[in-house]
Design brief:
The N and C termini lie far apart (41 Å). This protein has eight helices and seven strands; from the N terminus they run αααββββαβαβαβαα. The radius of gyration is 19 Å and the shape is elongated. Helix 1 packs across helix 2. By secondary structure, the protein is an alpha+beta fold. Bound molecules: guanosine-5'-triphosphate and zinc ion. The site of guanosine-5'-triphosphate has 10 residues, from helix 5 and helix 6. Homopolymer. Pathway: Cofactor biosynthesis; 7,8-dihydroneopterin triphosphate biosynthesis; 7,8-dihydroneopterin triphosphate from GTP: step 1/1. It comes from Sporolactobacillus putidus. Belongs to the GTP cyclohydrolase I family.
Length: 188
């Protein structure tokens, strides 16, 4: 289902009125439609399932770490509807020849990020989607982000970074495997 443009347009017009603006002044006339188009784009993950991307696999006998790091993402804090953004690092150890395309890991991040979201849920949803589709030996997802709701308002702490991680399978039990992945993630 696409977003309901008409409803967003009405709501944006009401917000503009509520803050004391004139929604009919020249600069704002098209703003409700622009915001509706923007919401369609930045919430497109509502209509996407990360598992459809990840389930496209090749048969490749690599049973060691695959890590895509520094995947940039933009998401929307579900509490304030302002952005949080940063980098996602996604690694897994394939099992049984189930190797997915590298871009599919980034597509999975994108699908889950483009929703009203919490950083913790973004992190665990990406990790769980990989577990459920690829059934690998292990998954590690580390996300670092800056939250605009902590930067431009409220506590106003620009530069503060939130780091979340989700580890599954062998990364939970094998300290050497986890240390290898973390050292690669942290390498400049
Ligand atoms: N755990 C978590 N908290 C988040 C995330 N994004 C925003 N928050 C927090 O959500 C909380 C909402 O707190 P509330 O007290 O309900 O809202 P508020 O009065 O606007 O809070 P302040 O931001 O402290 O002014 C704030 O502490 C935010 O920092 C996230 O991804 N994960
Ligand atoms: Zn927020």
């Amino acid at each position: 289902m696409n977003v309901n443009h008409e409803k967003i347009e009405r709501a944006v017009r009401m917000i503009l009125e509520a803050i004391g603006e004139d929604p009919d002044r020249q600069g704002l006339v098209e703003t409700p439609q622009r915001v509706a188009r923007m919401y369609e784009e930045i919430f497109q993950g509502m209509r996407q399932d990360p598992k459809t991307y990840l389930s496209k696999t090749f048969d490749e006998a690599h049973e060691e770490l695959v890590l895509v790091k520094d995947i940039p993402f933009y998401s929307m804090c579900e509490h304030h509807l302002v952005p949080f953004f940063g980098k996602a690092h996604v690694g897994y150890i394939p099992r049984g020849g189930r190797v997915t395309g590298l871009s599919k890991l980034a597509r999975a991040v994108e699908a889950v990020a483009k929703r009203p979201q919490l950083q913790e849920r973004l992190t665990t949803t990406v990790a769980n989607s990989i577990v459920e589709t690829l059934r690998p030996y292990g998954v590690i997802v580390v996300i670092e982000a800056e939250h605009m709701c902590m930067t431009m308002r409220g506590i106003k702490k620009p530069g503060a970074k939130t780091i979340t991680s989700a580890v599954r399978g062998i990364f939970q039990t094998d300290r050497a495997a986890r240390a290898e992945a973390l050292s690669l993630i942290n390498r400049q």
